[in-house]
Amino acid sequence: MAKTVMWFRRDLRLSDNPALLDAVAAGGDGVVPLFVLDDQLFDKSGTPRQAYLGASLSALAEQIGDLHVVHGKASDEVVRVARAVGADSVHIAADFTPYGSQRDEDVEKALDEHDIALLRTGSYYAVAPGRIRKGDNSPYRVYTPYFKAWLEHGWRPPADRVGEAAWIFPDGRTHPIPDQAPPPGMTVPAAGERAARRRWADYIDADLADYDDVRDLPGVDRTSRMSVHLKWGEIHPRTMLADLADHPGKGADAYRREIAFREFYADVLFHRPDTVDGYYNKSFEAMRYDDPGAVLEAWKNGRTGFPIVDAGMRQLLAEGWMHNRVRMIVASFLVKDLHVEWQHGARHFLDKLVDADIASNQHGWQWVAGCGTDASPYFRIFNPTTQGKKFDAAGDYIRRYVPELAGLDARNIHEPWLLDNPPEGYPPPLVDHAVERLESLSRYDEIRGGIR
User: Fold this and answer.
1) In the 8-state DSSP scheme, what is residue 335?
2) Which CATH class is domain 125-157+194-271?
């Protein structure tokens, strides 16, 4: 028998956690439930994510009975904890992000110096990044063929829930679970594995069947909002896929495609770690952009004068979340109406979203900007007014987040600047969309000959 360390990261749950099962099986003399507060990750996370992480860690600690939290460099702290209890092995789910994979290599080398093994079991995905490749062994660059290959590859059924475990806690240096309050005015969702399972079960019962019909309508608020639970691993996508298989229909089919999109972007980032902050299609590095300045601040604060854009940006500030269709609308507006380079918007999302996932966020932005994998053509420029009329026809979403427009009817709420007496306190349009659309196309023409 031996002692082990279960190093939790983005797998804050006891169910369907193969790494935890292995740690418990190998650690007959005890398992340390460890979480490392890593400055490179925690300090660079926005306050909403810090607040949510603290709540999620508290929920996990309640399930276990406690949680051993330390602060510092992982290659130092994991080794220190493992040696303190005489552990033979440290167990993790594999991390495929550029920072995470390098961190784990550093920890593995440090542990090896003390004859302690770092054992990777499972990952944060149904199909791990790098697993699916084309016939010539190259990675997929387009989502649809990736999705077909992903379905053909398949995934394992959910793992068992961990049973009785002999949890142990080292003496010496610990750190309290973060108790970061969210930004003023923001409410973060309930955190933890139990909250994730409740929300998922409720969603399946009430809304899954209609997902394909309503997922693009922000006003009805019937998306699952499971992204934050997936982000922190409070539920595994494999668990969700198993449940979807029990509820066949076009709603489940559409939801399965969205899970696959998350895994596609993780695969893309794995193969192209430079795209964390760089262009997937480097030809677009030559695109002319404006200095962000005041227009970026107006966009961040929901003061652009375009109702659907402002509603989305204010939802982000109020909830740390934004409806996916609206994420595309506000991103297109920043890049192609305000001519601000996509990285500025991506960084703001990372700062404010509780569900901010580096792969999905960066490559979602690049899709809109026309420079990513399977990208929207650059000349596909969303008209924020027509997008609002199409996806929030009655204006319910706008009224919910832009109180200055709450008194307007559906006929006027999308173009309040046309009224003889526009609502007091609401700004006029920051730009003329028709003019800025032509400007964006002109800038695209300047680089089009060099695009590969």
Assistant:
1) I
2) mainly alpha
Query: Pick from 19, 9, 17: which is nearest to 236 by CA?
Result: 17
- Decide which of 1.20.1270.50, 3.30.160.620, 3.40.50.620, 3.90.1150.10 is the CATH code for 3-124: 3.40.50.620
Question: Residues 326-369: pLDDT tens digits?
Answer: 999 999 999 999 999 999 999 999 999 999 999 999 999 999 99
In one letter, which amino acid is 152? E
DSSP strand E in 55-155: where? 68-71, 89-94, 117-123
CA dist list (Å): 260 to 5, 75, 257, 354, 367: 31, 32, 5, 21, 16
Coil, helix or strand for 33? strand
Number of residues assigned to the chain: 452
Comparing CA positions, the residue from 272, 26, 229, 4 lying closest to residue 124 is 229
How are beta strands 3-8 and 30-37 bridged, if at all?
parallel
pLDDT of residue 145: 96
Burial of 133 (0-12, 13-18, 19+ CB in 10 A): middle
